[in-house]
Amino acid sequence: MATLIPSLNSCLSKMTSGEKRLARRLESHLEDDYSCWFDLPVGGRQKYSDFIVLHPARGLLLLEVKDWKLDTIRSIDRASVELLTSNGIKRAGNPIEQVRQCAYQLVNKLQTDPQLVHADGRYRGNLICPYGFGVVLSNI
Question: pTM score > 0.90 for this model?
């Protein structure tokens, strides 16, 4: 069972239904050596990713969760999304771009620690672990 930080019970009130479902899945389906942070600020701009998942051998994964339904998405492009809401059309940032920016903020911050980067060779100066990012569309 993965470790969720903060504990699931302490952050349930701040989570959307999709975030709750994903947190429960992460906690119950990942092995013991995974750590998962919820809503952790990253970098100088205090960007937030819904979940940051860390495994010592497999690296980092940043996830953004959206509870959108397929029929509410009117359009989507690289920078933004248009959603149909009860108050009409709402424009929001593209979640993959949001989590991508957060991932780069985190990687840049981690690369300032000499123990977390390759000291020499082909990957000199790069983070010693792989990283990725993605979006979970919990209602699609």
Answer: yes
Question: In which element (H, E) is residue 106 found?
Answer: helix 95-110
DSSP conformational letter for 5: E
Q: Structure tokens of 34?
A: 């995974």
Q: Are 18 and 65 in contact (CB under 8 A)?
A: yes
Average pLDDT, the chain: 94
Instruction: Summarize pLDDT for 4-58 with one digit per residue, the tens.
Output: 999 999 999 999 999 999 999 999 999 999 999 999 888 766 678 999 999 999 9
On whether the CB atoms of residues 74 and 82 are closer than 8 A, the answer is yes
- In contact, 69 and 50? CB cutoff 8 Å: no
Question: Which element (helix H / strand E) includes 36?
Answer: strand 35-42
Q: Are 133 and 99 in contact (CB under 8 A)?
A: yes
Phi, psi of 93 (to 5 degrees): -70, 150
**Parallel/antiparallel/unpaired status of strands 88-93 and 73-76:** unpaired
Query: Would you state the structure tokens that stand for residue 105, as one six-digit string?
Result: 């903020």
User: Distance of alpha carbon 13 from its chain centroid, rounded?
Assistant: 19
CA distances from 27 to 18, 30, 68, 91, 127 (A): 14, 6, 23, 32, 26
